[in-house]
From TrEMBL:
ADP binds at R21, A22, V23, V24, R25, R154, G185, A186, E187, R211, K213, L214, H215. Its EC number is 2.7.1.11. Residues 3-275 form the Phosphofructokinase domain. Allosterically activated by ADP and other diphosphonucleosides, and allosterically inhibited by phosphoenolpyruvate. Pathway: Carbohydrate degradation; glycolysis; D-glyceraldehyde 3-phosphate and glycerone phosphate from D-glucose: step 3/4. Substrate binds at T125, I126, D127, R162, M169, G170, R171, E222, R243, H249, I250, Q251, R252. InterPro entries: ATP_PFK_prok-type (IPR012003), PFKA_ATP_prok (IPR012828), Phosphofructokinase_CS (IPR015912), Phosphofructokinase_dom (IPR000023). GO terms for molecular function: 6-phosphofructokinase activity. Catalyzes the phosphorylation of D-fructose 6-phosphate to fructose 1,6-bisphosphate by ATP, the first committing step of glycolysis. Homotetramer. It comes from Alkaliphilus flagellatus. PANTHER family: ATP-DEPENDENT 6-PHOSPHOFRUCTOKINASE, PHOSPHOFRUCTOKINASE. This is ATP-dependent 6-phosphofructokinase.
Amino acid sequence: MKKIAVLTSGGDAPGMNAAIRAVVRSGIYNDVKVMAIKQGFNGLINANIEEMNLSSVADIIHRGGTILRTARSEEFRTEEGQRKALNVINVLGIEGIIVIGGDGSFKGAKKLNDLGIPTIGVPGTIDNDLGYTDYTIGFDTSINTVIDAISKIRDTSTSHGRANIIEVMGRHCGDIALMAGLAGGAESIIVPEVGFNVDQVCNKLLKGRNRGKLHSIIILAEGVGGAVEMSKEIEDKTGIETRATILGHIQRGGSPTASDRILASKMGAKAVDLLLQGVGNRVVGVNGKKLIDMDIDEALSIKSNFDMETYELAKILSI
Ligand code: F6P
């Protein structure tokens, strides 16, 4: 293989730049031309593509976002869009593509592979919702952003003697809520994977107050519902002033943590290795300390495995 390309797709995630850097540099190291596709699958359809060199990825390892920009492409879902993309790939002589993104992006990668272009997926999403891999690029940075917010909100929560509900991202997955909630010492963690009862949350709040606790932090995963509505309900039921904070896109930005940079560097390089071995239709992941790769269909069929043990621990530690 002499010419490959890389794109980022779906929601951005801190560490995507480190992954792009790893793809470009390890490709060039192996005498392969690396093309950058801008704005995800839309850039492929519209031939928004340029060749990268060593300097194109200088000074980006520490930056959040993605220098390639990203998109959730509706057009690539259509046959017409796929036909246009394939035409661009053939005209430019691209022999393999690395797709950095989440499950939707992996479906796009799968489609390209079905069209005859070997593709490798690299998991880049803050949600950590891909069951085949222990971690996705961006998750660690995101939970660090959330715990920073929890600490700040806890200060003012204590000063005012309020309860605070903090709504975090994650789509249908409760991993951000769980891990940030544990690390941030939250009183309650509400996730889509485990049923909850608002009266139990209220009782815990009141019990804490009765023993002199001044603050109360409730972490709510967005997949369960809205923080504003829940704060009203809790305030009505307990009589404790309750405020809602929706952290939103702040969780997707910022300089990636060391863990995310290291994970992204390893995964980006592994994706290039696989393409150069002539392998396609696979995704890269991590199992414990070991990098793994797996068939895309198999990977997508593995449901995200919620860590009940850690959830129970968080409950015990917040009695
Ligand atoms: O998948 C990443 C994510 O940030 C989810 O946690 C969230 O539900 C979604 O993307 C938000 O998407 P958008 O930025 O398009 O509003």
